[in-house]
Amino acid sequence: MKKVLYLIVIFAVNISFAQDYSSVIKSYLQQNRSQYSLEQQDVSDISIVSQSFSKSLQAQNVYVAQRYQGITVFNSNSPFVIKDGSVVNAKLSFTENAAVKVNSTSPSISAVNAISKAANWLGLQNPSNLNLIETVSDRSYIFSNGNISQNNIPVELVYQKMEDTGALKLAWDLSIYLIDSTHYYNVRIDALTGVLLATDDWVASCNFGEGAHSHASAESILFSDKNSNSSIAPMGGTAYRVFALPLIGPNDGDDQLVSDPADPIASPFGWHDVDGVPGAEFTTTRGNNVLAQEDANGNNGNGMLADGGAGLLFDFAYDLPRAPAAFREAAITNLFYVNNMMHDIMFQYGFDEVSGNFQLKNYSALGLGGDFVFADAQDGSGLNNANFSTPPDGGAPRMQMYLWSAPGDVLGTLMNVNGGPLAGEYLAMDSNFINGTPLPTTAITEDLVLVVDDNAGSSTDPNDGCDTILNSAEINGKIAVVRWGGCNGPFKMTKVEAAGAIAVVVVYNLPTDPIAMLGGGSNLSIPCIMIYQSDGEAIITALLNGDTVNATLRDDGSGNDPFQRDGDLDNVIIAHEYGHGISNRLTGGPSASSCLQNQEQMGEGWSDYFGYILTMKATDVSTDPRGTGTYAVGEGIAGRGLRTKPYTTDFALNDFTYNSIKTQVAPHGVGSVWATMLWDLTWDLIDEYGFDPDIYNGSGGNNISLQLVIDGMKLQPCSPGFVDGRDAIIEADLIANGGANRCLIWRAFANRGLGVSATQGSTNSKSDGTEAFDVPPGCELGVSDNGADEINFIVFPNPSNGEINIKSKYDVGDATISIFDMNGRKVFSQEVELRQNASVNASGLNTGIYLMQIESADRSQTTKLIIN
């Protein structure tokens, strides 16, 4: 049934796409030129770049570019929302009085010469074997890669707006994807002089490894048992052993076998299809949405894919903790799974084929196909990082996931448990006591014995060895097990050695990486190692139960190599990277991949937000701290992660406001302020509507938030700032929900300094904005959103040409009619006598969506008003 519905949706979208909205948009621009300070010639030559139907908005999203004499103004893509044949929202990125700002209409250097100029400016070798492959138009060409790019090189004549002067310089726009994938340059070369005018990079490199990271946490770092690998028989079809969403990663729960996770709407032929005919074309981690493979040598070549065989059973063991190279097929499987889940989930919220999503074959035949995600697992070209490249629709993106160095000192597999349910290798940290004894390379094999003390001192743990040891006889000649903390480390080790232990295994008392134990004056003659809290507590439990646990300790040399974690298991990082593709394809439309290159842009914030909302659980609360990349950096799920502050509604832990972007580093710090605001908004909506664990079709506040964020991206202009992003979300709620959440949204943003009076200045600067904490009238706390408790007044016709009638259920006497635009500014006000009916003339208002507030002495109501 779902597949039938899918085909019906495709049919409906195809019908709507066939409509030409050029005349509607031109008429709107003509009527509203003065509002945007545009000249006649600024709006006479436009081009519809792309359009799509939004199910959530029940409207057309149409992206329009400004041209002068047929040449496109770069990054002028502007979103228009058309509903019932009228423009109900528009955000223009047009240049005013373009005719006097252009410097030429004819280039002096050729398109092919522009490629050579670009290579020189970028420090690349001179292109060779550069051949013309296709002439798209008399101003647009495609050349071969010239041995400097992974892809063919498109070149188009455009106008580049110069930020310092506002001039429009004739330029060649071209893109070069470096062979090593580190950069996907999109540049404008002056078509008269050959000078490099502007450089954008379509690779969003997150540079996660920068800066120190906190390791405070309240959760265990590793939950997987040594030999758990519990199998759940698949119910038929496909099955993948993964850290299933909403798990953050291995620090949040065990791996599990997930059966048939492909969504029948978003991926109607499954994850391994590429031809739109029932039946998988591949038994590997390859399909219509993503090709996941290892790239350990970092050459973007044809690495190993995980193979599920004819039964598509991708059941590969993780057995953490161990070196990532030991579980490559499992890592590839998790990377394949999360990428496909991102595709399927976001499809439901409007990141679909016609909106520029990532698919080899577009089943609807809308949008451009051929652009599934190349996802490289355990990529050897970097460390402590991840990135995602997003070319325009039809160009395949690449996700590169790297390995991560464990924080602090290196770890090795310094202990083995020999037999029994706990058998296996254990990562440990050797001690660094002054005058201590390192772990020898020759094996020490004995039974483990738990230290028991009389607990007579200040310590409250009878197994930390801080007080008089009671079981010296059992410890003598054995390997002692003791908890860390409670007293001086060397002091307790000396006591354990005096009890006759031949070695000590210390169980860390925090759920983070073991540490190299420090201290002086110990003169220890026995070796001491520290193991993970989760591993050690399992051993302590077994010993308390009377089980015999035999272990071997030795320096196996593994500690000489850095212990690493695999970013392919950190679902938040994978979602974050995929999120760059979403925000880049939706802002300015799928053909504009350079709309998020300004300084006050929120790309990193949207990406963090996606990672969090897809890992929310019903047990979460708003004040819980959340961090990005907690698994990769060795933290529990309550760790701060890679940002300067955790995400939480608790201002004591995160006090970011709009002004904070002035001191935060761009783009990651700036983005984290935006994600903080979105996180607050999400929790406010959850407080209002509850949490729904059904991320596909739920109706909870989390679902509403995700939909508003996706729709907001479609409504905001190219190069948006915070105020643009806020307004787009408010407008999305107005169009989709009649403004039901208007006041809630305003309060959420105003609480973080993005209130009505906030100004963003130039979006190319993060330093010239001003925060404000005010909300529109009627949105103060304690006032019902939009006065929706009771309908007192009926406004008609609506939509209206400005002649507005009001019918009242009550004789309210004198009343004030106020009309506000979506930025909360009052644009109309009139006093009326409202006994049964009244009329006002607001025909001077521009076409668009407004809010009409009707107030009397004892009644008020706010109503959405559309002016045609």
UniProtKB/TrEMBL annotation:
Name the domain of life: Bacteria
Q: Which GO terms describe its biological process?
A: proteolysis
Query: Which GO cellular component terms, listed alphabetically, does the Swiss-Prot or TrEMBL entry include?
Result: extracellular space
Q: Which GO terms describe its molecular function?
A: metalloendopeptidase activity; zinc ion binding
Is the keyword Zinc in the record? yes
Tell me yes or no: is Iron-sulfur among this UniProt entry's keywords.
no
Keywords in alphabetical order:
Hydrolase, Metal-binding, Metalloprotease, Protease, Secreted, Signal, Zinc, Zymogen
| Required cofactor names | Zn(2+)
Where in the cell is the protein located? Answer: Secreted
Q: What sequence ranges are listed for the domain Secretion system C-terminal sorting?
A: 795-867
* InterPro entries xrefs: Fungal_virulence_M36, PA_dom_sf, PA_domain, Peptidase_M36, Peptidase_M4/M1_CTD_sf, Secre_tail
Q: Which family does it belong to?
A: Belongs to the peptidase M36 family.
This one is known as T9SS type A sorting domain-containing protein
Organism field: Aequorivita lipolytica
